[in-house]
From TrEMBL:
Membrane-related topology note: Multi-pass membrane protein
Subcellular location: Cell membrane
Transmembrane segments: 12-36, 42-65, 167-187, 218-238, 250-270, 282-302, 308-328, 348-367, 373-397
A Pfam family assignment: MFS_1
Main localization of the protein described in the UniProt heading: membrane
Protein name: MFS transporter
Coiled-coil positions: none
Alphabetized PANTHER family for the sequence: INTEGRAL MEMBRANE EFFLUX PROTEIN-RELATED (PTHR23513), INTEGRAL MEMBRANE PROTEIN (PTHR23513:SF18)
Key words, A-Z: Cell membrane, Membrane, Transmembrane, Transmembrane helix
Length: 449
């Protein structure tokens, strides 16, 4: 899998992603301490609002950036967003009011919502070979998981020497380093965008692409299944470990680490697995495992802890991480297959926005149910959401999903360049090719859904 790093362009982009992720992880720890300094016992409310602001920025900003990404060179846009994030991180230690924290968090997350989809859309252009791109997706998954384990440890080491304000300095350095790496990277010129219309029309295109393409609708349903399972991990683990199992605070990190370990193991195995199985087979089967795991979690939390219960919880959390990684990691391949090269920024921006919309639904659901109804019922309800979403994905995404689709153009005039290989058919012109929604194809062919 590491062989993909021989590509110098990808190596610099991947390094930029890693250092930016480490900076983000340091900022997460520092922000928690800053919130405690400003709000004391109300720190949880400050952080909860910050999390909501993050999701709102992700859902609202990404489609707009996808619409204007073709007007700005990708390297310039990504570097500008890194510099914006560095500026926000540098300003955070100097805030004195909670509302200032919320404003800066919105700016920080808006910049991330602009950077990430453009970065994701650049990888297929840099790595056109399917095998290399699959390896890059697994590398990105590993980077996210390793960051969640490494950043807290690095933050703890820094805090043993200096005050938490210096963590923001580390965040700033990370984003500046990311910007420098991006600027030093020569990126291939993206294909020209042929769509017409203003920013709103272009912003809406990504959503229309998802709505019109069966496998992308299925991808969104699978994202909801992952969000349902992941929400119980990220929202309810603290109370589950501390209250149900009566474990010390350090055990929370161990449980979350089990989730990350499962995800990383799957990410390393996926490049080889996806050479033998289709994206649909891997993703749908992994998603069907999620409600089964949550049912086991419900049974586990409904009974009094025993000697085997704690290892069982760690195994279940690792299984959720593994299944989630098997669903999420190939998603880039599905989007690449379903979009014209020129539309990749809009497609990745739509996926970024819509998938975080799923988390915006499941996070509060897990929090409210966990508080008011208890952990067993929370696992049952979220498991039902995961099951319904997976069943919907399996129905929407045809098991036979070929690249080449025969279709008829009733609206294009004879002699149109797109009809070079077409033949007359009833009411139009028939031909077949790799089918995606674009300016010539507005809906999926009948009989192919």
């Amino acid at each position: 899998m590491l062989s993909v790093l021989r590509n110098g362009t990808y190596r610099r982009l991947f390094t930029a992603q890693v250092v930016a992720l480490v900076g983000t992880g340091l900022a997460t720890v520092a922000l928690s301490l800053l919130a405690y300094d400003l709000a004391g016992a109300g720190a949880s409310a400050v952080l909860g609002t910050a999390l909501a602001i993050k999701m709102i920025a992700y859902v609202s900003i990404a489609p707009v950036i996808g619409a204007v990404a073709d007007r700005v060179p990708r390297r310039t846009l990504m570097a500008a967003m890194d510099l914006t994030r560095a500026g926000v991180a540098l300003a955070l230690p100097f805030v004195t009011e909670v509302w200032q924290v919320h404003l800066l968090i919105f700016l920080l997350q808006a910049a991330s919502a602009a950077f990430t989809p453009v970065f994701q859309a650049t990888l297929p252009v840099v790595l056109p070979a399917e095998r290399d791109y699959t390896r890059a997706l697994s590398m990105s998954r590993l980077a996210y998981d390793l960051e969640s384990l490494f950043s807290p440890a690095l933050a703890a080491a820094v805090l043993s020497l200096v005050s938490y304000e210096w963590l923001f300095a580390g965040t700033t350095v990370g984003f500046l380093a990311s910007a420098a790496l991006v600027v030093a990277t020569a990126l291939p010129r993206p294909a020209p965008v042929e769509r017409t219309g203003g920013v709103y029309a272009k912003a809406a295109f990504g959503t229309r692409l998802f709505r019109a393409t069966p496998r992308l609708r299925a991808l969104l349903a699978l994202d909801l299944a992952v969000a349902a399972a992941g929400a119980i991990v990220f929202v309810n683990t603290v109370s589950l470990v501390r209250d149900h199992f009566d474990r010390p605070a350090g055990a929370v990190s161990l449980a979350l680490g089990a989730y990350g370990a499962g995800s990383m193991l799957t990410a390393t195995a996926l490049p080889r697995l996806l050479r033998r199985a289709t994206d649909r087979a891997v993703m749908v089967r992994a998603a069907f495992a999620l409600p089964v795991i949550l049912a086991a979690a419900a049974a586990l939390t409904a009974t009094a802890p025993a000697a085997w219960s704690w290892p069982a919880l760690l195994a279940l959390w690792a299984a959720i991480g593994a299944a989630s990684s098997a669903v999420l990691t190939p998603g880039g391949r599905v989007i690449r297959r379903s979009s014209a090269d020129a539309d990749l920024p809009a497609a990745f921006a739509a996926r970024f926005s819509l998938s975080h919309g799923c988390w915006l639904l499941t996070y509060p659901l897990a929090g409210r149910l966990g508080t008011e109804a208890g952990l067993p019922l929370t696992a049952v309800v979220l498991g039902a959401v995961a099951l319904a979403s997976t069943v919907a994905a399996a129905v929407i995404w045809p098991a036979r999903d070929p690249y080449l689709l025969e279709h008829v153009h009733p609206d294009l005039p004879p002699g149109h360049p797109h009809l070079a290989d077409a033949r007359p058919a009833g009411g139009g012109w028939r031909h077949g090719h790799h089918y995606v929604i674009d300016q010539h194809h507005h809906r999926w062919p009948e009989g192919s859904r």
